[in-house]
Amino acid sequence: MFDNLSDKLEATFKKLRGHGKLSEKNIKESMREVRQALLEADVNYKVARDFVKAVEAKAVGTIVTQSIDPGQQIIKIVHDELVDLLGTTVAPIAPFDKQPVVFMICGLQGSGKTTLTGKLALLAKRKKKKALVVAADIYRPAAVKQLKVLADSIEVEHFHIENKKPEEICKEAVRYAEKNFIDVVNLYTAGRLHIDDDLMVELEQVKSNCKPDEILLVADSMTGQDAVNVAKEFHDRLDITGVVLSKLDGDARGGAALSIRKVTGCPIKLASMGEKLSDLEPFHPDRLASRILGMGDIVSLVEKAQETIDIKQAEQMQEKLLKAKFDFNDYLSQMEQLRKMGPLDSIMGMIPGMGKQLKGLKIDEREVDRMTAIVKSMTAHERRNPNIIDGSRRRRIAAGSGNSIQAVNQLLKQFSMMKKMFSNIGKKKFKGLPGGMMPF
Length: 440
Ligand SMILES: Nc1nc2c(ncn2[C@@H]2O[C@H](COP(=O)(O)OP(=O)(O)OP(=O)(O)O)[C@@H](O)[C@H]2O)c(=O)[nH]1
Ligand SMILES: [Mg+2]
What we know:
Layout: H1 3-18, H2 24-40, H3 45-62, H4 70-86, E1 101-106, H5 113-126, E2 131-136, H6 141-153, E3 157-159, H7 166-179, E4 184-189, H8 197-210, E5 214-220, H9 225-238, E6 242-246, H10 255-264, E7 268-272, E8 280-282, H11 285-292, H12 298-308, H13 311-322, H14 328-341, H15 344-350, H16 354-357, H17 365-376, H18 380-384, H19 391-401, H20 405-424
Parallel strand pairs: 1-4, 1-5, 2-3, 2-4, 5-6, 6-7
Antiparallel strand pairs: 7-8
Helix pairs in contact: 1-2, 1-4, 2-3, 3-4, 4-11, 5-6, 7-8, 9-10, 14-17, 17-19, 19-20
Bound molecules: guanosine-5'-triphosphate (GTP) and magnesium ion.
């Protein structure tokens, strides 16, 4: 999903990481690239322009503050703006709390209306509600049949009347639902290839006859800005209550998703993520933003790091690590910093590029406790000069910390290996780690 956009943004942020600090110049350059990436993803040009302006203003504002890493700082700002663009919070659909709740489903031909009608019916069914699907497309008998097959497959009641107008079919359907204790009515309306006045008049009549609780427009996210224009016109005529983005599982470029709310002012409520009827999700602006940025939970990591890590100290630590000058005192303070941030394995999973490698790997906190105890049994002199720790010192440390000599040996071995590793690794490799965290 949105792969091209993700790649472009990632390349921009990577470049920024190469700079030591944010400056107006490198922010401007990056923002030009971000704007280009958005336009290539078919985002509405005004939306792209305003977006970049907002990010730039915020980024310039952070120049003066000490940043953890310029790339990450910008990612955080871009992420927040993306969330804002996509709607900030989840916009829920009408609850199934009265008899009947009426959903009107509209959209152009092929947008995914039939599929969504089935998905909503299945959702209701799973919540132990009685659902009804109503075929109000009188132009194509095949459409009525298709919906009937779908309804049968999930054992949901199907409603249609021959030789009646769509607005009459819908009105009858709601009346039927009221009499038969049906909880959720899904009105499937006809689509057109293009928006035309006849269609809009028909839909307006359905609306006025049925007073739907929700008028959902299905917008095909593969069609980019066309979907946005369609949504705008539907909204102008029908005052739709929500957009459903369909085919978000495909290789959509992102334009529709990123522009539609800003341009129409109408919330995206649901995301249709596949052809299967169970592939329906509430639309989460924050999750989509994270996915676009391909950064896993980097945002929460930066937030956590900002809250808990002493930046200056972390930077000094990074220096020491890379010069392989760190000792057991540094080791202890790193452990403390990490601990402040929460469970270690969740932290590791949040580090970009580490998530995948460490999937399934659990860091044993007891192991960390043990190592900490061993270090604490060392004298100050030993901590600063690990190479003086000979056999008798090892025995003393083991006894003092309640561990075996093997455990002490193991820690010392790991420590010296880590030191060696750091002296071999160029500074570049660990630029991305927030606050010079120890990558174990
Ligand atoms: N991958 C994917 N395919 C979808 C999704 N939603 C719908 N489709 C497919 O898109 C095609 C059109 O979907 P329909 O639900 O028939 O669309 P419609 O708006 O009812 O189309 P018409 O009745 O022809 O106007 C079908 O092949 C669906 O299987 C989705 O979220 N993901
Ligand atoms: Mg259909």
